[in-house]
Amino acid sequence: MAKKHLAAVVLAILLALAAGATGMRASEIDDGMPLIHMLRPLLHSGGDLGRRGRVPCDSWRFAVETNTLRDWDTVPARCEKYVGNYMLGGHYRSDSRAVANEAIAYAEGLNLTGQGKEVWVFDVDETTLSNLPYYAKHGFGVEPYNWSTFGAYVKEANAPVLPETQRLYKRLQALGIKPVILTGRREDKREATANNLAAAGYTGYLKLLLKPQNVKVSSIEFKSGERKKLQDAGYVIVGNIGDQWTDLLGEPEGGRTFKLPDPMYYIG
Ligand SMILES: *[C@@H]1O[C@H](CO)[C@@H](O)[C@H](O)[C@H]1NC(C)=O
Ligand SMILES: *[C@@H]1O[C@H](CO)[C@@H](O)[C@H](O)[C@H]1NC(C)=O
Ligand SMILES: [Mg+2]
């Protein structure tokens, strides 16, 4: 790079940094030179991304999906529109498609030698079924979780299918891999969950495993414990898919894990 050009770029960055500090938009100081990746420091962005106001919503979502940001209660209010657009526009669907494509390619490459003992673990909420009709009415995760209204919605057994997960589900069945449904929903939701899964087109699964009614157990503890039981019973968990990291973490995880997007809530 020519020395003069380099100096100009450095000046542009310094101006951009100054613009960030004064709240001026970087584009306002753009004099036609390519901006170097908008190197503007966002003030107060170091700590709790959820509470502090300056991190763009797509950066917030990145932190959520990578399990960097944990134990958050609600979607930041300023991100309601962003999350709504993400969920209802094509983006959520195309991110889910990318995950399903990868999972199918992986499954198709497996050597199935387990004499029909290979299983694949599926979560329910935001994995086999979508609660978007509920969340669309409750601020896409901006409103605090309300167990009574959400519980009533679950009991309606009317949640729509997540089509990309269903495509994976049916492909696995065609390959001879048996689905196991493992959910953090409690036993009192068994009938509603089974009915909802059937209505959404999920048939022929090996087991539907729900959390016991009155036992206090974390999601990781419960789900990894159930996977261990499957393994001890001679099943081979070749894959595991869910929208929460707590669906996927904890030994045994399964041959491979697949994380679906979910910027609406966090389950610890
Ligand atoms: C599956 O088995 C075939 C034939 O034995 C072998 O060529 C292939 O590499 C195996 N694939 C995997 C993923 O192990
Ligand atoms: C949950 O929703 C119900 C019905 O709208 C309301 O009466 C109740 O106060 C809410 N509970 C919480 C904890 O917000
Ligand atoms: Mg879920």
UniProtKB/TrEMBL annotation:
Keyword Glycoprotein on entry: yes
Which superkingdom heads the taxonomic lineage of this protein's source? Eukaryota
Q: Which organism is it from?
A: Zea mays (Maize)
> What protein does this entry describe?
Acid phosphatase 1
Q: Which SUPFAM superfamilies match?
A: HAD-like (SSF56784)
Gene assigned in the entry: LOC100281904
Q: Does the keyword Nucleotide-binding apply?
A: no
**Keywords annotated in UniProt:** Glycoprotein, Signal
Upper lineage ranks? Eukaryota, Viridiplantae, Streptophyta, Embryophyta, Tracheophyta
The UniProt family comment states: Belongs to the APS1/VSP family.
- State the Gene3D superfamilies in the record: HAD superfamily/HAD-like
**Signal peptide span per the entry?**
1-26
Q: Name one GO molecular function term.
A: acid phosphatase activity
